[in-house]
């Protein structure tokens, strides 16, 4: 079952520009210069129940605009959107009962009252029964370790404490679909680890579908098997993260640490292999090929020279994404 169905979705914004000088200002009174900018440009997307999908791209790629259309905040210029079987804009009151949203830059908690009072207000808004609230929120509060924070005003919480409470607030009604827009922005490593662990457990226990947008690609690597890559409002990749890592960057690096100094003459030379010296005992081979080519090279090197250590250097997802964008800009 698909919880998100998007077809040919588009969102245009009109950008006005002012003419210079007094005469230009006078002309602007009657006619304005403008151009139409497409923040989201004819995208189609579907997300199955229980999936955790990373929605990534550079600033201005259209990620937040897409999220706002999927949650009913913005109306699409064209195309169709179905989320949890509903039109987010036309069936808004019924629809918001089925989603949770966390915007890293915005708060849904009341600033001057205790966290638990905000929770009680949201419980009334979503019409959650006492039994459901106690059962589900007991688990959320314990797992996110926010029990000691419940009687504190939101304004007295640190950023990490507030974001854990924001996440709990979005889950008061136990929604089947959770939208996270930069939920870990500005947080320290320990808080990020807690949030990632909680989201994994939530997905496993309740089959909660998660659509995550973030600039922190370690969040994506830790949580999402599937990624959707957006560039200038268009989807340029939609598939498994592992496939993106395997196929998007040519060449693999193998670092050899020998027991004694080795010269380049002592190393095997193939057309698909280039060598770089790190120090007398350490050489790095860049292999233009798959795992079989890497395996053949390692076997040949080990037969020729005593080895202290061999390490295959994984290319980071961040490097992969950077390369994709650079190639896209070069061809555009």
Automatic annotation (TrEMBL):
It comes from the Bacteria. InterPro entries: AAA+_ATPase (IPR003593), ABC_transporter-like_ATP-bd (IPR003439), ABC_transporter_ATP-binding (IPR050763), P-loop_NTPase (IPR027417). Keywords: ATP-binding, Nucleotide-binding, Transport. Residues 24-257 form the ABC transporter domain. One of its GO terms (molecular function) is ATP binding. This is Daunorubicin ABC transporter ATP-binding protein. It comes from Anaerobacillus arseniciselenatis.
């Amino acid at each position: 079952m698909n919880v998100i169905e998007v077809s040919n979705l588009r969102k245009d914004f009109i950008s006005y520009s002012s003419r210079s000088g007094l005469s230009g200002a006078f002309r602007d009174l009657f006619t304005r210069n403008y151009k139409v900018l497409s923040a989201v440009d004819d995208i189609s997307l579907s997300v199955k129940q229980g999936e955790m999908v990373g929605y990534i791209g550079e600033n201005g790629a259209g990620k937040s605009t897409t999220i706002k259309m999927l949650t009913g905040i913005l109306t699409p210029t064209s195309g169709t959107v179905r989320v949890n079987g509903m039109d987010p804009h036309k069936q808004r009151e019924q629809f918001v009962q089925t989603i949770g949203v966390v915007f890293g830059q915005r708060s849904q908690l009341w600033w001057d009252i205790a966290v638990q009072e905000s929770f009680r207000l949201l419980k009334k808004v979503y019409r959650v029964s006492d039994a459901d609230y106690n059962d589900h929120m007991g688990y959320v509060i314990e797992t996110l370790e926010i029990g000691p924070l419940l009687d504190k005003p939101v304004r007295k919480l640190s950023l990490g404490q507030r974001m854990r409470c924001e996440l709990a607030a979005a889950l008061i009604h136990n929604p089947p679909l959770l939208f996270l827009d930069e939920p870990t922005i500005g947080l320290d490593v320990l808080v990020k680890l807690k949030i990632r662990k909680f989201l994994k457990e939530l997905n496993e226990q309740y089959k909660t579908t998660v659509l995550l947008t973030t600039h922190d690609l370690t969040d994506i690597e830790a949580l999402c098997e599937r990624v959707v890559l957006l560039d200038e409002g268009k989807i340029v990749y939609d598939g498994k993260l592992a496939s993106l890592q395997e196929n998007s960057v040519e060449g693999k690096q193998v670092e050899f640490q020998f027991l004694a100094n080795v010269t380049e003459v002592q190393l095997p030379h193939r057309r698909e292999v280039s060598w770089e010296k790190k120090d007398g005992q350490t050489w790095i081979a860049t292999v233009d090929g798959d795992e079989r080519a890497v395996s053949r090279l390692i076997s040949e090197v080990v037969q020729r020279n005593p080895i202290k250590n061999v390490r295959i250097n994984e290319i980071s997802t961040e490097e992969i994404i950077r390369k994709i964008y650079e190639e896209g800009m070069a061809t555009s």
